[in-house]
Amino acid sequence: MKKVRKAVIPVAGLGTRFLPATKAIPKEMLTIIDRPTIQYIVEEVVASGIEEVILITSDGKSAIEKHFDYDYELDNVLKQKNKQELLAELNHISNLIDVVSVRQKKPLGLGHAVKMARKVVGDEPFLVLLGDDLVRSETPCCRQMLDLYEQVGESIVAIQRVPMEQTRNYGIIEGEATGHERTYKISRMVEKPAPGVSDSNMAIIGRYLLMPEIFEILENTTPGHGGEIQLTDALQALSNRRGMYAYEFQGRRYDAGDKLGYLKAIVDVAMSHPTLGEAFKQHLKDVCPCGPSPKKISC
Ligand code: UTP
């Protein structure tokens, strides 16, 4: 079984749900307290033992590359001012992991974005993480998937259960439980099903572990839902060809490319923040319309 060493993170989308904030700033650079969303995602990859990140970027996203680069001038200024803590933080970011960028010239869809990584990934299984999908968990979500991969040796998509009325916003999988915990063998996938098309509520989130055959399939995938080259369509073909698993990951997932999801992510991160957490929780109690609760935040 080939080792998974690389993670592809597509960040070339337009981010229209977050306009006007994303007119000049990539949505992946919107901050959750003092770090951009993309840093949390790269840190998950690093904590999972991955060796290389491949960013799929587009025009206007250079701030993301700069964020993970070494900044000689800033480094000098901080040294002169003896700002040791900030220096350490910046060095931590630029030393996190090797980052390679590949351009997606037009936003033709997530499937198209992943296809752009073909030359850099080569003939190896790899991870895909969406640049705006944040997962908070004790064991990093990617690590959970890698542990399962070591047992099943096939492609895996991370899933979560969503209310039935929300299935139309997701790629939905249908399948049978396997002998492995929280794991299903996929029989069918539907991208954003209309009501009544599927009775499953198992929604694909922004974490995938894929066999390299996906690239050849993507080369032949025609535009689907919304006129875009859909990753889900190619996943269905890969699943038919050699089988695929869905894994109900442990943790909390936030779509930080959506305004409400982004707010929820901030609240979650802030509540467990080592220096701000207690004061923030007190603030939530103070502003709660249900009145202060000594034990639990009630709204
Ligand atoms: P989204 O569905 O969130 O699309 O893409 P988007 O364009 O970024 O944002 P909205 O919906 O207009 O607000 C999911 C992920 O796939 C990437 C995005 O950057 C995001 O990380 N993506 C999407 C690409 O890299 N290229 C594409 O053509 C489409």
Notes on the protein architecture:
With 299 residues, this protein is of the alpha/beta class. It folds into 2 domains: 6-255, Spore Coat Polysaccharide Biosynthesis Protein SpsA, Chain A (Alpha-Beta Complex); 258-299, no CATH class. The chain is built from 11 helices and 13 strands. It has helices at 37-47, 62-67, 72-80, 84-94, 110-115, 118-121, 141-152, 213-219, 231-242, 259-271, 277-287, and strands spanning 6-10, 31-32, 35-36, 52-57, 98-103, 126-129, 133-136, 155-161, 171-177, 183-191, 202-210, 244-248, 252-255. It has a 5-stranded mixed beta barrel. Helix 8 packs across helix 9 (231-242). The N and C termini lie far apart (48 Å). The mean pLDDT is 92. Residues 10-18, 56, 104, 107-110, 112-113, 130-132, 257 line the site of uridine 5'-triphosphate. The site of uridine 5'-triphosphate has 21 residues, from helix 5.
Task: Tell me the layout of helices and strands.
Blueprint: E1 6-10, E2 31-32, E3 35-36, H1 37-47, E4 52-57, H2 62-67, H3 72-80, H4 84-94, E5 98-103, H5 110-115, H6 118-121, E6 126-129, E7 133-136, H7 141-152, E8 155-161, E9 171-177, E10 183-191, E11 202-210, H8 213-219, H9 231-242, E12 244-248, E13 252-255, H10 259-271, H11 277-287
Parallel strand pairs: 1-4, 1-6, 4-5, 8-12
Antiparallel strand pairs: 2-3, 6-11, 7-13, 8-11, 9-10, 9-11, 10-12
Helix pairs in contact: 8-9
The structure holds uridine 5'-triphosphate (UTP).
